[in-house]
Amino acid sequence: MNGQGNESLLSEVASYYSDKLAEHGETPRGVDWNGENSQILRFEQLCKLIQNNSEGFSLNDLGCGYGAMFDFLSDRYSISSYLGVDVSEDMVRAAESRYTGRPTARFIAKAEPDTAADYGMASGIFNVRLGRTDAEWYDYLQATLDVLDRTSHCGFAFNCLTSYSDEDKKRDYLYYADPGRLFDLCKRRYSRNIALLHDYGLYEFTILVRKTQ
To answer: How far apart are CA 9 and CA 185, in angstroms?
Structure first.
């Protein structure tokens, strides 16, 4: 996908999530999740990537929304710095307001991090393709994984809706990824150490990419 096409796609996504935030506020439904329990369950899978937490770590959250992952991390880990990145300026403003006075947290309205971190994570950003074709969305997905790889030192994690979802529950505006295809892509392109998690009860999967140090 060329730069102009990618910019148009991201503009569509930003508008979609800004509308969700306006409708539902700073809640899981405001970032298009069903509820808090499933949101936390997703964070738990993504954070299986984290190792050697005793000395603290830095993390980039791509598609941070209003910053819910920062709450999750702060309660459970020793995090030295957190960067939340989102294409929706409304989301970033909400996050900045929510975490005023928290020096370890920073938020920017961009398509990718402006600095590298120990870990990179992306929760839910590959789900809503709107009117894009499977081929267009897969190109965007691959380009975004390249960003996560380039801006993480120790590894990155992401989730997708699964192509194994029940057919009667699938929706045309959502993207259902083939977990085997993405496992193979990550194994060949990014690292030998890849984990595919498809056993936590949701219609989705999480992939962990651990880099050798």
So the answer is: 22
> Is residue 191 within 8 Å of 210, Cβ to Cβ?
yes
Give me 138's structure tokens. 């897969």
Residue 46: closest CA among 212, 213, 202: 202
Q: Where would I find the H helices in the chain? A: 3-24, 36-46, 68-76, 89-98, 134-150, 179-189
What pLDDT digit, counting tens, does each position of 31-87 carry? 455 667 888 999 999 999 998 666 789 999 999 988 999 999 998 998 999 999 998
The gap from C-alpha 172 to its chain's centroid, in whole angstroms, comes to 21
Residue 147 structure tokens: 């960003």
pTM of this prediction? Answer: 0.86
- List the beta bridge partners of residue 196: 207
Domains of the chain listed by start with CATH number? 3-210 (3.40.50.150)
